[in-house]
Amino acid sequence: MTEGNFTDYVKIKVTSGKGGQGSAHLRREKYVAFGGPDGGDGGRGGHVIIIGDKNLWTLFHFKFKRHYQAGHGEHGSKQTSTGADGADVYMRVPLGTQVKDPETNEVLFEITEDGEEKVVAKGGKGGLGNSHFKSSTNQTPRYAQPGMPGEEVEVLLELKLLADVGLVGFPNAGKSTLLSVITSAKPKIANYEFTTLKPNLGIVEYRDYRTFVMADIPGIIEGAAEGKGLGHYFLRHIERNSTLLFLIPADAKDIYKEYEILLNELQKYNPELLDKERLVAISKSDMLDEELKAEMKVELDKIFVDVEYMFISSVAQQGIQPLKDKLWDMLNKNEDA
């Protein structure tokens, strides 16, 4: 998906460098008329290397450059001098990037740590110089190995955002508004469906200067797991969130029904998503008076038996700090145990 400067899926071609040719040089000096072989080896071709960069959040920089070529190894020379290796090419990607085979969709590897390096195309090996082929029966070999060719491969880069908390909900549930209030992020906000067409990340400042990362995942619709709308592009970002915050507006026709639909879409896409910690936030609750809220709690207590819920209002700043407290406890309970 590409929207604005956000790109999370791109196909690229990479070519490693070919190895340098070995030298077939024979030693010739003023007082050495018939010296032996002294040809050096060729240098290896440059690798194409993918490296994780914590400062990147998108694959946008690959949008206009789709082919990367490493340098070729230099040829060997006399006096058994080895040729220089070809220059490696480094492709920097955000953390959470998977590298896939475009034919089979197999995950070749993934980058999850800053500075983590993986070679995606190995440079060709340099050829051996003729000094390696000297023997008692052939003291002046006049041949050397050519360098090995490099690799040319196509790969898919697919980004799955790394965040502590992922916001899950239907379009217009108030996710962008909550993110703008609880973090310093400034997502696009308007009162119509699919305002958010790209994931937004924000840093939530907690007590004592502690922080955690929250991601506003674009709204889910029924059929998202089958690819309806932009379902697949949205849902894959949820896989990397350790805690899921379900946001359901207080004016929904059936709050629990919406929750079940959202759960069903996640289960159809990847059943493992249901193993994550979950919390339900009833948004836009500033439109409820205390009497109506009490009536709703009686009903919600009966149906939300396997998950906790909270009433919040991003606009009125109601329940925001308790929400932060609860999320922090959920994220850190394993460490405190």
Outline the structure in words:
Keywords: Cytoplasm, GTP-binding, Hydrolase, Magnesium, Metal-binding, Nucleotide-binding. GTP binds at residues 169-176, 194-198, 216-219, 283-286, 313-315. The chain has 337 residues and is of the alpha/beta class. Helices cover 18% and strands 24% of the residues. It has helices at residues 175-182, 231-235, 255-269, 290-303, 320-336; strands spanning 2-3, 6-7, 9-15, 48-52, 67-69, 89-93, 97-100, 107-111, 117-121, 152-159, 165-168, 200-205, 211-216, 243-249, 277-283, 308-311.
Distinctive features:
single chain; 337 residues; alpha/beta; six-stranded mixed beta sheet; five-stranded mixed beta sheet; disordered N terminus
Distance N terminus to C terminus?
40 Å
**Average pLDDT over all residues:** 81
Structural class: alpha/beta
* Counted beta strands: 16
Global Rg:
29 Å
Overall 3D form: rod-shaped
Beta percentage is 15-25%
Largest sheet: 6 strands, mixed
Please estimate the helix content: 10-25%
- Low-confidence parts: 1-5, 187-197, 222-231
Strand order of the largest sheet: 12-13-11-14-15-16
